[in-house]
Amino acid sequence: MNNKMLCDIGFIGLGVMGNNLALNLADNGYKVACFDLDNQKIEQLETMDQQQRGEGEQRIFGCSSYTQLLDSLSKPNLLMVSVPAGNAVDHVCEHLIAADIKADDIVIDTGNSLWTDTIEREIKYRPHFIFFSTAVSGGEVGARFGPSLMPSGDPYAWTRVAPVLQAIAAKVDPESGRPIERFEPGNPVLEGEPCAAYIGASGAGHYVKMVHNGIEYADMQLICESYHILRSGLKLSPMEIADIFEQWNCGLLDSYLMDISIEVLRQQDPITAAPLVDMILDTAGQKGTGLWTAVSALQMGSPAQSITQAVFARSISSLKEERLVASGLLSGPQIPEYSAQQRAKIIAELHDALYCSKICAYAQGFQLMSIASKDKGWNLDFAAIAKIWRAGCIIRAVFLQDISRAYGSDGKLQNLLLDPYFSQQITKFQLSWRKSIASATLMGIPHPAMSSALAYYDSYRCAVLPANLLQAQRDFFGAHTFSRTDRDKDEKYHLDWSANPRVMHKVS
Fold first, then answer.
1. CA dihedral 49, 54, 58, 64 (to 10 degrees)
2. Closest-CA residue to 198 (of 230, 225, 164)
3. Does the chain have fewer CB atoms within 10 Å around its N or its C terminus?
4. Distance CA 121, CA 283 (A)
5. Which residues partner with 314 through β-bridges?
């Protein structure tokens, strides 16, 4: 490539996500120089570009080495990397250093890296180049036509990359908060609010994406539990459940995950013509981000039980052989035959239960981010985070507009449940929520995420919890001390439980 044809952006890693992000960049007017260890992927991308642009000017240019890639770019260099999290990211960075990358060049990691790794890399590579990151949500379709982006790192780097990331991000109508859809190559959305906002210092963006995925785990599990109750409890067919979900999707439960659930439930198996969902083995996989969220919640002391239960639900699904044995040995209740009127009542209550549980799952995720933000000094903007999740990402849902409004109205909001709108919604629907959980329990149908969401709500609204007895137990066997209700909470006491008579000591 001659100097007259220097590219705007370098792109490394042409897997499914990288391939689509590169085409998205090209659609938005950027000339992209691409490199991948697999030369066939480079050729395939160039062919796709040619097919989509027709007689138009070439937009994507393949490179055969890291050195050629750097030589093909306008200075200072801007590069995006889409490779698997872990060692592959460092492999790319080390090869860029060997190819003589410069200190003012920016390398953007777009993968699903662990947030702590991102912090370490920003420090490690600082002498050689600026390591920046943007977490990406939306899968391959989002990458191609507009993802939700969660960038973080050097504030100066953000000023340089912001126009690029905001151009390729999903867009929403600012009034309704609904996505502005684009499903044709070469036809980018130029108006609307971009679903890309600077999250904060290095690691913050990947942490927020990690929590996004934890909420995603919970949201998916809640929908699956609702499906299970309708399928096994009410003996409805996948097609009938799809019809119910479609009705729900016209109101408070409108979301991308409901959209795809409806489509899945209506899909026939190409081999047997049976409902495809009935032909799929009930063992769920996971890539680790939900687990990372659960681990972080435990480390931070943040209650995120619905997210954690969603992770455990996938774990127990993997015990297929054990469950088959247990199903023949362990008894459960007999599910009754319900009348049409009873079924309608259970379905209506389940709608409300799903909605309330979903509110609690999001509340848990935002509470975890709040605790992490204070601990790491990130000063996260939760109204902005909710805004960039309204389109492009997997958990996009109509009620994210309400979440954004809640945090925008009260910048010091401690918990989503304390927002007047959401507290009123829970009050309005909680009786149905409780009845639905009771019905599922009496049916013997597991609903761990939904019931844990209710437990979270009831615990959070409870002025006095039995932790007083628990702390007394800890002091009894381990002298762990306790605070008193009639003294300053920072004062610690210990009762000498073995003495006769028992004597109390002020410890601090």
1. 40
2. 164
3. C
4. 35
5. none
Amino acid at site 137: S
Other beta carbons within 10 angstroms of residue 12's beta carbon come to 26
- pLDDT higher than 50, residue 14: yes
Residue 3 has pLDDT above 90, yes or no: no
What does the alpha-carbon distance between residue 62 and residue 64 come to, in Å, rounded to a whole number?
7
Give the catalytic positions in this structure: 209, 216
Here the tokens at position 159 are: 């000023």
Pairing of strands 171-172, 193-194: antiparallel
Which whole number is the average pLDDT over 81-108? 96
Residue 108 scores a pLDDT above 70: yes
Q: Please say whether the beta carbons of 226 and 354 come within 8 A.
A: yes
Residue 27 near residue 97 (C-beta atoms within 8 A): no
Q: In the chain, what are the domain boundaries?
A: 3-201, 206-328+337-460, 467-506
Q: Which option is the CATH number for 3-201: 3.40.50.300, 3.10.270.10, 3.40.50.720, 3.80.10.10?
A: 3.40.50.720
Whether the model pTM is above 0.90: yes
The string of pLDDT tens digits covering residues 464-474 is 999 999 999 99
pLDDT of 271-306, one tens digit each?
999 999 999 999 998 777 889 999 999 999 999 999
What's the rounded Cα separation, in Å, for the pair 161 and 194? 14
What residues contact 497, with CB distance under 8 A and at least 6 apart?
475, 476
Q: Who contacts 41 (Cβ-Cβ below 8 Å, separation ≥6)?
A: 14, 15, 19
Measure the CA–CA gap between 113 and 296, rounded to whole angstroms.
Answer: 15
CB under 8 Å to 218, separation ≥6 — which residues?
A: 306, 307, 309, 310, 361, 364, 365, 449, 453
pLDDT in tens, 113-166: 999 999 999 999 999 999 999 999 999 999 999 999 999 999 999 999 999 999
Q: What is the pLDDT of residues 408-437, one digit of tens each?
A: 999 899 999 999 999 999 999 999 999 999
Q: 260: which 2 tokens?
A: 């795809």
216: exposed, middle or buried (Cβ count in 10 Å: 0-12, 13-18, 19+): buried
Which amino acid is residue 193, in one-letter code? E
* pLDDT tier for residue 2 given thresholds of 50, 70 and 90: very low
